[in-house]
Amino acid sequence: MELFDLREEYTKAGLDLPDLARSPFDQFRKWFDNACEAKLIEPNAMTIATCGSDGRPSARTVLLKAYDERGFVFFTNYTGRKARQIEENPHVSLLFQWLGLERQVEISGRVEKISTAESLKYFISRPFGSRLGAWVSHQSSVISARSVLLKKLDEMKRKFADGNVPLPDFWGGFRVVPTRIEFWQGRPNRLHDRFEYSRESEDSQVWAIRRLAP
Fold first, then answer.
1. What is the rounded distance in angstroms from the CA atom of residue 133 to the CA atom of residue 152?
2. Is 187 a catalytic residue?
3. Residue 205 DSSP label
4. Phi, psi at residue 198, to the nearest 5°?
5. How far apart are CA 69 and CA 90, in angstroms?
6. Residues with Cβ within 8 Å of residue 42, at least 6 apart in sequence
């Protein structure tokens, strides 16, 4: 099949200004709940794009684990490439792609570390294997084979055999504090509905709403 022939017509829904919540967080909650109710695979999966001081962008998928009016939280190793780029340049972009609903949400903002107490609260909720995994992997480092990881995992199983796995000091959460959030709804003829929420200033709690051309 030719790539030119891969084409979908988006007809599931529309989006207009009266449909929108005044707060982008309320609007996100509505759409996120819709994605969960539709039983989409990993509705909390989001692409995060980062760019370090060298100007070279990088993108990968992480999982949203909390959100509120302060921002959107994910967890990671603080020594990996993602975290190093964030340290060099705290401005990032998130993308939720809910193809089953013909929707996307793009979030631009600045990253900050969450507190150790917040990271610990999430860490102890993780399955035993996931807590061990945080200790096993030196994220983004070069390894010779998967067996290196499995050997280290066995070591950690013996070390923490009592089930009490402490929070690593090199692992925890980041919060993306948004300055711009765009809601995208697919429409026929590629005339999609796009609405942008943007803060009047970086610290403002007031959001302007604008319709954008597709």
1. 9
2. no
3. S
4. -140, 140
5. 19
6. 63
195 forms beta bridges with 183, 211
- Residue of 190, 199, 210, 211 marked active site: 190
Alpha helical stretches, state H, the chain: 24-37, 81-88, 116-123, 128-136, 146-159
**3-class secondary-structure state, position 174:** strand
Q: Which two tokens stand for residue 214?
A: 């597709």
| Phi, then psi, of 193 in degrees rounded to 5 | -90, 125
The neighbour count for residue 29, using CB atoms within 10 Å, is 14
**Contacts of 71 by beta carbon, 8 Å cutoff, 6+ apart:** 109, 112, 175, 176, 177, 178
Q: Would you write out the chain's pLDDT as a tens digit for each of its 214 residues?
A: 899 889 899 999 999 999 999 999 999 999 999 999 999 999 999 999 999 999 999 999 999 999 999 999 999 999 999 999 999 999 999 999 999 999 999 999 999 999 999 999 999 999 999 999 999 988 989 999 999 999 999 999 999 999 999 999 999 999 999 999 999 999 999 999 999 999 987 777 889 999 999 9
Question: Which pairing describes strands 66-68 and 57-63: parallel, antiparallel, or unpaired?
Answer: unpaired
Q: Provide Rg for the chain, Cα atoms.
A: 20
